[in-house]
Amino acid sequence: QVQLQESGPGLVKPSQTLSLTCTVSGGSITTNYYYWSWIRQPPGKGLEWIGYIAYSGSTYYSPSLKSRTSISRDTSKNQFTLQLSSVTPEDTAVYYCARVGGPTYDYWGQGTQVTVSS
Fold first, then answer.
1. Facing residues of 49 across strands?
2. pLDDT of residue 117
3. In Å, how far are 81, 91, 105 from 25, measured between CA atoms?
4. Exposed (0-12), middle (13-18) or buried (19+): which is 84, by Cβ within 10 Å?
5. How far apart are CA 19 and CA 17, in angstroms?
6. So what's the pLDDT on residue 86?
7. By the 8 A CB rule, do 95 and 38 touch?
């Protein structure tokens, strides 16, 4: 059973960098053909895909967030990390990490609330 767990600060000040880590257990983030994603849901809005890091280490980001987003990984810890720079209150959301297996998001973390406020 694959499990994902998000961790990071719940409060970030405007203009700072949001940094979240997803720790994966029950499966390796380097296993072929899986993609490890970050997704968020602002209050009262739908899910928004942020980007992913592939089993190979390649990354792809949402065009609307690309200039501020970086996703990296630590294979020794089986973790992948999201960094979102120059945050504003509009980046307040519940942030999820998830695995893409085939055509579906088959495993999700429980989500973590991040609030951007001074």
1. 39
2. 97
3. 15, 28, 16
4. buried
5. 6
6. 98
7. yes
pLDDT of residue 102: 84
Please name the amino acid found at residue 65: L
What 3-state DSSP class applies to 91?
Answer: helix
- The secondary structure of residue 89, as a DSSP letter, is G
Is the Cβ–Cβ distance between 19 and 81 less than 8 Å?
yes
* Phi, psi dihedrals of residue 90, rounded to the nearest 5°: -70, -15
Residue 53 backbone class (left: φ over 0; alpha: ψ -120 to 50; beta: rest): beta
Nearest to 36 by CA among 49, 17, 18: 49
Question: What would the two tokens of residue 45 be?
Answer: 């809005």
Q: Which two tokens stand for residue 96?
A: 């999820």
Per-residue pLDDT of the chain (118 residues; tens, 9 = 90+): 999 999 999 999 999 999 999 999 999 999 999 999 999 999 999 999 999 999 999 999 999 999 999 999 999 999 999 999 999 999 999 999 999 988 899 999 999 999 999 9
Nearest Cα to Cα of residue 51 among 94, 25, 81: 81
